[in-house]
Amino acid sequence: MFRGSMVALITPMQANGELDEAALEALVAFHLENGTDAIVAVGTTGESATLDYQEHRHVVKRVVDLVAGKVPVIAGTGSNSTAEAIEMTSYAMQDGADACLLVTPYYNKPTQEGLFQHYKTIAERVAIPQILYNVPGRTACDLLPETVERLASISNIVGVKEATGNLDRGRDILQRCGDRIDLYSGDDATAMELILLGAKGNISVTANVVPKSMHELCVAASAGDRETAARIDATLADLNKSLFLEPNPVPVKWALAHMGFGDERGIRLPLVPCSDAIKPQLLAAMRKAGIDC
């Protein structure tokens, strides 16, 4: 249903932490001009954890309006409360999102049966297409392939973002689920290899700053053109690493501010702005990736 380079969009903020509407508009235009295939609004990279409900809904609706149907908009609506996730997913559907991305419940450590019932309940209550999101390094909760296989039988669960970076895990999901559910990479460093294995695209942090390159990498890998994909991937390898030298989205917000999108101080506590220690490495990686700094 969704394909290619899907940017996990930051939520631009002013130095005082307020939403930066002008930067958001410019950033969406930047992606529409540079080949991004879908925009994920208010996922974890979009600081969903520190936006209140009204802000969360506002950003999703604003991105939908700015995109104006040119590419799909996928709203981050996951929560560790099933009732809250249902509410946010329902709002996203009302506000025009094309799908929702639902991170596994964090902190409360549900069993695999609990995860199955969580996602099943949301899918039954809200008809919008839904993408599962597994990132155990952040959530302390691992959605296993056998549970993905069970969930693949639910018609509006259409994909899974697998962010472990474990290619064997991706291969297992593909073998179990076939074409019943789409697999997406959630790890920029291994996205090329996962797409070559059969994943349908990459939900990407790196695409925030190099949308054209990430789109071209996804196109090449989806076509089975390893040589072209690997050449692009090599230019992005240092950037993929540097954007995670500090907790996401701290480095990517600094990089985008350096490119003219928002204020590098525009991030909410408990995260703090990018430290001076990593800026030279990040800047070098940006230049290697072809960004005019």
From TrEMBL:
Annotated site (Part of a proton relay during catalysis): T44, Y107
Catalytic activity, reaction form: L-aspartate 4-semialdehyde + pyruvate = (2S,4S)-4-hydroxy-2,3,4,5-tetrahydrodipicolinate + H2O + H(+)
UniProt keyword annotation of Transmembrane present: no
A GO-annotated cellular component: cytosol
GO molecular function, one term: 4-hydroxy-tetrahydrodipicolinate synthase activity
Organism domain of life: Bacteria
Residues at the catalytic site: Y133 (proton donor/acceptor), K161 (schiff-base intermediate with substrate)
UniProt-listed PROSITE patterns: DHDPS_1, DHDPS_2
Cross-referenced SMART domains: DHDPS
Leading EC class: lyase
SUPFAM superfamilies noted in UniProt: Aldolase
Job description of the protein: Catalyzes the condensation of (S)-aspartate-beta-semialdehyde [(S)-ASA] and pyruvate to 4-hydroxy-tetrahydrodipicolinate (HTPA).
Protein name, entry field: 4-hydroxy-tetrahydrodipicolinate synthase
Organism of provenance: Candidatus Thiothrix singaporensis
